[in-house]
Write a structure and sequence with these properties.
Helices cover about 40% and strands about 20% of the residues. It is an alpha+beta fold. The chain has 2 domains: about 120 residues, Orthogonal Bundle (Arc Repressor Mutant, subunit A), CATH 1.10.10; about 120 residues, 2-Layer Sandwich (Beta-Lactamase), CATH 3.30.450. The protein has a 5-stranded antiparallel β-sheet with strand order 6-5-9-8-7. A 4-stranded mixed β-sheet has the order 1-3-2-4. Strand 2 and strand 3 form a beta hairpin. Helix 3 crosses helix 5.
Length: about 260
């Protein structure tokens, strides 16, 4: 994230308690008009600029779940990130499917903005400095407290923690995205080298139990998850089905290092 965008987020955090009050941020701007509604599968969020009225319309689902909060924060990313805002002012509306599932650069930047907005840097730093390695169960509990999506919380954590771990978002037995921590990258596990999800893994079991709200766990090793590497490690796998979306959130941790 570039320094300019980080400064924007820091300013938005001023005079805002946790969980981040998105309504308060919107009201402070004065020219954003929320339009909650039942939009079906058309989009998870959308923002457009109405030139003759000099206002931005932010469309989002009515129900304020953590997923919808992330969608709203994602659309605010399009509003605040200078390049994205310029596109809006020139007539381009952003139809978004947030949640780190898009490969498009602008959508990924808005996802990153949303995760930093909803999980402030200073909060996460204090959290990781005071506690030992955080499990996926810990992260889901924290996500609930902050009213942020499980994926956003997990991604923010692995990008901040000094521990050896990585997060996978998968669907239909295939990896969509993988995010390693800096330490996991350092020991040679920056990339998995394969896209399949092991058939006998906890993640595969989680995929078969959508909507269960249960975390599936299993002991494994790096050879199961990563292509041939010089280094090897014991892996503790935790997997959580994300409602009925077909998506599975997985955390892989170096068990010998993280304890």
């Amino acid at each position: 994230m570039n320094p300019e965008v980080r400064q924007i987020i820091d300013a938005l955090h001023e005079d805002t308690d946790l969980p981040i009050d998105l309504d308060k941020i919107i009201q402070r701007e004065g020219n954003i008009r929320p339009r909650p509604g039942n939009y079906g599968d058309k989009f998870d969020g959308r923002i457009e600029y109405i030139q003759d009225k000099n206002i931005f319309i932010l469309y989002h689902p009515v129900v304020r779940s953590s997923r919808v909060r992330f969608s709203i924060a994602h659309e605010l990313g399009h509003f605040y990130i200078p390049e994205h805002r310029s596109l809006l002012l020139n007539g381009k509306a952003h139809y978004s499917k947030p949640g780190f599932i898009s490969g498009k650069r602008l959508e990924r930047e808005a996802d990153d903005f949303a995760s930093h907005l909803l999980v402030p840097e200073n909060y996460l730093t204090k959290l990781t400095s005071k506690r030992k390695f955080l499990t996926l169960k810990d992260l889901l509990n924290i996500a609930n407290e902050l009213q942020v999506s499980a994926t956003a919380m997990a991604v923010r954590y692995v990008k901040t923690t000094p521990d050896r771990c990585g997060v996978i978002l998968s669907q239909d037995g295939r990896q969509r995205f993988y995010w390693p921590s800096e330490e996991m990258d350092y020991i040679g596990f920056k990339w998995r080298g394969r896209k399949d999800i092991p058939w006998n893994s906890a993640s595969a079991e989680a995929a078969q139990n959508q909507g269960s709200g249960k975390i599936f766990e299993k002991k494994s090793d790096s050879g199961v998850w990563f292509s041939n590497r010089k280094s090897e490690c014991e892996i503790w796998e935790e997997a959580f089905p994300l409602g009925y979306t077909g998506l599975v959130l997985t955390m892989l941790a170096d068990q010998s290092y993280n304890g």
